[in-house]
Design brief:
Two copies of one chain form a homodimer. The first copy, chain A, is built from six helices and ten strands, in the order E-H-E-E-E-E-H-E-H-H-E-E-E-H-E-H. Chains A and B meet through helix 1, strand 4, strand 5, strand 9 and helix 5 of A and helix 1, strand 4, strand 5, strand 9 and helix 5 of B.
């Protein structure tokens, strides 16, 4: 059965659970069309500017950062519980040194509305177009977050992605790792 | 029955529906302890820095802006369907000119974890402490959003609130205006 459109908020409990546990996969294709997955644990969704948005953060030191700056779009993908370990594996390698998709046994597949691909093996997909970005800056950040998350600097860039499409496997709720 | 703790994502579909329709109420108390409600239609929730966050936006021209800068905390409150019109009413007045709570027949009640109060009549409550803020800047904002949302400038400040407490009426799901 094909993946089905879902409302933005419908599978947010499952997506937030993935973010807070094994991680979700942010996928971006560079100018050369080659896609790279990055494991993310942070993100927010909602409505800003009258548009549904998915907010993600990427450190400038990451390989994905250059791709995000080039691409202007991204997808967020949630793996099923039985493949939760793959998100973790993706978090331990850099796309600079290897083909992370191949290393993790994941397959890029065409998106519906953006250029960056989705991951075929994932069960929940958000396709997003970057409409705004700004940066985490140390001066107005709570001191305990600054010392805990940024001991060496490398402050995240915050990308605000307009969600153009959200869809999922019909049994995504059952196959997700939680809640 | 007292209001009950809920998980951050549990009533997000109802909260997002309120934001996108009648509005939710952002409540902030200034230094003098006087609370002011502002109707909001935008917001995102999720996890950033390993903390649950609620992101809200306030224009510098708003009375609430000065209060937010003073207070460092806020609450977001969702009214039941039968009082949806009150959120709208709150959106048409300024706290500079009147006591908006009284005008709207709403009651400030003590929060559990922050100084800004909640609204007793609301059915879903998020208590938040500001941990970071930055601004919408025109240079990297999608042009169609810039022209539609900011024809006169007055770019929003974005407040990232760490969610310290989320709770709701036991029948909040049934009493919410949607989905």
């Amino acid at each position: 059965m094909p993946k089905q459109d879902v409302d933005l908020a419908e599978l947010w409990p499952q997506t937030l659970h993935a973010l807070e546990h094994e991680g979700a996969l942010l996928v971006v294709a560079g100018k050369d069309g080659k896609a790279n997955p990055m494991t993310i644990g942070w993100g927010t969704i909602g409505n800003i500017w009258g548009r549904r948005v998915f907010v993600v953060l990427v450190r400038p030191s990451r390989f994905t950062y250059g791709l995000m700056e080039e691409a202007g779009d991204f997808t967020v993908n949630v793996l099923p519980a039985e493949r939760a370990g793959d998100a973790n594996l993706c978090g331990t390698r850099s796309g600079r040194d290897c083909d992370k998709l191949r290393e993790c046994g994941l397959t890029a597949a065409p998106s519906r509305r953006v250029r960056s691909p989705i991951l075929e093996e994932a069960i929940i997909h958000y396709e997003c177009r970057v409409v705004f970005r700004n940066d985490v800056t140390p001066d107005v950040l709570a001191p305990e977050i600054r010392s805990r998350c940024y001991p060496g600097g490398d402050f995240h860039r915050i990308y605000f992605g307009e969600v153009l499409s959200v869809y999922a496997e019909p049994d995504a709720r059952q196959r997700a790792s939680g809640p």
